[in-house]
Amino acid sequence: MTTPAKNTICLWYDRDAEDAARFYAATFPNSSVGAVLRAPGDFPSGKKGDVLTVEFTVMGIPCLGINGGPAFKHSEAFSFQVATADQAETDRYWNAIVGNGGQESECGWCKDKWGLSWQITPLALTEAIADSDPAAAKRAFDAMMTMRKIDIATIVAARRGRDAGGLTSFHPTSVPLARAFVGRTLRSTAGPRRPRVSTSRSSPTRASSWRGFPKLLSRKRRTAPKFS
């Protein structure tokens, strides 16, 4: 008889603890099914010979599944968080859980067919939202909030301030710079600027000087030297 672990996660199932344990063992590395205990007599949610408890491990974590009937349900208050190295591993676990009667949730969360919650969390996401640059962390966090299964390429691009296609993201803080750039470009392509003539009564000197400008030009034309 093996020595039981000092601390074991006990999970309540209706009557499918063994099925769940075998699914976890087939899906995740370093997972296995151990002892299966059958009831020595009838009990409220079953009868003699039914599976009562199942010992199993999920990625090295010792667990005990109990077939206790429908009285208690799983909830998001408890979940397994699985760190993934790349998109392929993320897809593999996510698709295995959801494709086996599970359910997608938000921000990398999903539920298996027995209602147990899983967080399939790429290391790239964990690193991005812990970035020492608050702006980069917020961009990654905001991107995550739009997702179900995590898309690593989008998270990495958001962290860098780019979209998934490699284009620089446009942020509200860049509006003054953009306006300055556009204004400078328009001025450079519009040709020489015409002098502004004030018609305001508050500046009669400037207005009167422009009114005399045509006479000054005609005088210069009359007195210009002629060349033979």
TrEMBL record:
Annotated Basic residues bias: 217-228
Organism: mine drainage metagenome
Location of region: Disordered: 186-228
Ranges of Low complexity composition bias in the record: 197-211
Domain spans labelled PhnB-like: 6-121
GO biological process: methylation
Protein name: 3-demethylubiquinone-9 3-methyltransferase
A molecular-function term among this protein's GO annotations: methyltransferase activity
Keywords: Methyltransferase, Transferase, Ubiquinone
PANTHER family: PHNB-LIKE DOMAIN-CONTAINING PROTEIN, PROTEIN YJDN-RELATED
